Amino acid sequence: MASWGRVYNILRNFARTPRVLTALGQSRTVGTGVFASLVGAGVIYQHYGASRTFPVVVYAEEPQETAVPVRSARRIRFNQFASLIYEQEVYMTPRDFLFSVMLENVDRKLRKKELKKQEVDKMLTTASRAQADNNLFRNMGDNGLISYTEYLFLLTILTKPGTGFHIAFKMLDDDGNEQVDKKEFLKLKNIIRKKKEKNPKEGDNKPTAGVEDVNTTLQAFFFGRHGENKLQYKEFQRFMEDLQAEVQEMEFLQFSKGMDTMRREDFAEWLLHYTNEEDNDAYWENMRKRIPAGESITFAEFKAFCLFTNNLEDFAFTMKLISEANRPIGKAQFKRAVRIATGHDLSENVLDTVFKIFDLDGDNCLSHKEFLGVMHDRMLRGLKVQPRLGLSGYWKCVKQETLKGAQEALRESGSPF
User: Fold this and answer.
1) Most buried among 123, 188, 281, 295, by the most CB within 10 A?
2) Terminal-to-terminal C-alpha distance of the chain
3) Alpha helices, DSSP H only, in 272-311?
4) What is the pLDDT of residue 358?
5) Is the dihedral of CA 198, 200, 206, 209 positive or negative?
6) Residue 57, Cβ neighbours under 10 Å: how many?
């Protein structure tokens, strides 16, 4: 009881101070809260006793984590699929490269293989004797060496039209004969690498010192075993077309399940495979409801559409002009824009499939902005789709889940809205 008496005296003296009286007079709610807090403190005091020492918890200082170098999506993908090590540097094989552009992940059961100089020499000799063909990478398989810089270079070939490379060749070609030597070609690769890597903080993306001195499969194929040959633009153009055709054929067979034709729903799956858009659920629903079963797309139609995706920038510019002119973007305008950008037409079969998927409100028109976003992800094969992190990503998820919940509630209630 003596302890409670001491607590009572403390509370009484505290309550008589002018500051507390003023506060209580201004707000009874605040006063009540203060009083309750003080009573709680008295209970704690009584529990532990006036002569006891309150338990003290000492928290150890958390060790500060060492900053980890930022890695680009391309560097992560390269390291994930690369299966070779030579002179302490990671390399891809031609098979690794094909898998990296077709598959999202690799189930690697073995460790990376460390190569000896004799093995590399054998690979380079094989590459220098290889013939241009749209099965070049498949024929080489694991018998080849591709550096990270060359990986970026090959990705650019798959995603850009040949006009840019032709311009680059002309810039490097001093005498105007449209051919470059090995040294000039390495300059071209480095220009493309720097353009691909826009973030200067990604220090691990820069090639290790000495890596560019290592002869690789591409260099041996273009310039000979010892780099003595010159590369003509016509030969390089053939290489670009062959590589694009090889990857397109493999993707077509992947989604057509090895058949000669691809079902329209399989084509839709290929289109949306790497997308991360808010309207993805609506696109899939459109595919299920609007695309009739039993209709197929040929490889020639598929290849023409892939050519269109390589010219997205020109197509986007044309579509922007049409949109700013306040014209509805229907099939006719879309088809005309494709012809202007690529010089080729899309088949009615492919065009109808695209509009059935991306026409969200059923007016036979589509939002070219959303469509271009999907095509951009498809073209880059997911390498620029970033995870939704941070506050903005959180609210985006909240928005999506709220809309989804509201739609489900309306369906259950039978509301016509």
Assistant:
1) 123
2) 69
3) 280-290, 299-309
4) 83
5) positive
6) 4
